[in-house]
Amino acid sequence: MAVLSCVIIDDEPLPKALLQDYILQTPFLQLTGVFSNPLEALAALQQQPADLVFLDIQMPELNGLQLKQLLGNHCKVIFTTAYPQYALEGYELDVVDYLLKPISLERFLKAVAKARERIAPVPEKTAPFLLVKTDGWTQKVNLHDLLFAESLKEYVALHTVRGKIMTLQSIRRLEEVLPAEQFVRVHKSFIIALSGMEGIERNRIRIGSHYIPIGEHYKAAFMDLIARKNLL
Q1: Rounded Cα distance, 201 and 210, in Å
Q2: Are the C-beta atoms of residues 185 and 175 closer than 8 Å to each other?
Q3: Residues in the chain with pLDDT < 70?
Q4: Cβ pair 32, 7 in contact under 8 A
Q5: Which CATH superfamily groups domain 129-229?
């Protein structure tokens, strides 16, 4: 899953703190800057652009509409404002989305999902299988056979339709090589195949006879993914 760098520009402390909290709950976002002064933010972004900017409109010295024009296409922008009258002008500036304060987590997740679709590069074609080392030899694991992966300290258990395979590697490394459109991290110790998911019960996912926990850190992004893809 590609990680997007993001910056908050807002002169109001409470909305700024709320956005920080939402970003920390979203696995594919990384907060790289928080600014109250739009001129300072402009200087920083000219030196090092971010993938995504959460930009307030009503600010002293330089408003968000002016700042967006100065930024050009170097960063994608989501406007965050209490004033709906700027929506049309905002969309004419080709912003990703326009969020009205107070911003709910659900609405925030929809906006950043749109941003990810516009920013993240097209995934490279991946082989339909993994090659993993186990018991002194290299074994081929077809991706369509893989139901979920479970971290067991320095090992990972690959649960497939044919049985369990133990391999010496980290789940983080496995997450990097598995295609993001087919597999998703739902817990610090678990990656699941979306195609193998049979249901969700409270905070766990049913795959065959197994129940996979959904970690609090991953829950919001996972539920948003399920809603967008209409998987259940």
Answers
A1: 12
A2: yes
A3: 1, 121-127, 230-232
A4: yes
A5: LytTr DNA-binding domain (2.40.50.1020)
